[in-house]
Amino acid sequence: MKVVNIHKRTITQHKDELSELLKTLGSKNDKFWPKHKWPAMKIENGLQVGNKGRHGPIKYSIVEYIEGELIKFKFSEPKGFNGTHELRLKSIDDSTTEIIHEIKMKTSLRASLLWLFTIRWLHDALIEDAFDTVENYFSTDEKQTAHGFWVKLLRASYK
After folding, report:
1. Against a cut of 0.90, is the pTM above it?
2. CATH code for 2-157?
């Protein structure tokens, strides 16, 4: 199955401000990832091409990195996830930046079922929570995207 999954969020901040947060991704001082709600993202030896990372059962390696602008990962787990996911920042103007997370992959039959019934739902919630984390870093108003019934059920079953 061909999978293209895109999330975007516009943040009222200069790209340089968001770049500083993106540089912390996968580190002990991560200000981007919603580690207060989800398994932490861990990247061995920092953000550099070739380094391996993971969050929960999802594993990958960095295949492209432009500091503070783009991190592109290639999946290594789960088996049957053949493709990439990336985070990038796009400057809209001097005070507005768009965060984009994009998955492009082909999945085996087993991986397609895993994606359709489990991972897609959890992934979508996680990315929106990550975008909330970034937005909340710059705001006093707490943004919190609501999770649907299926996400709550899946998360409860993993505890």
Report:
1. yes
2. 3.30.530.20
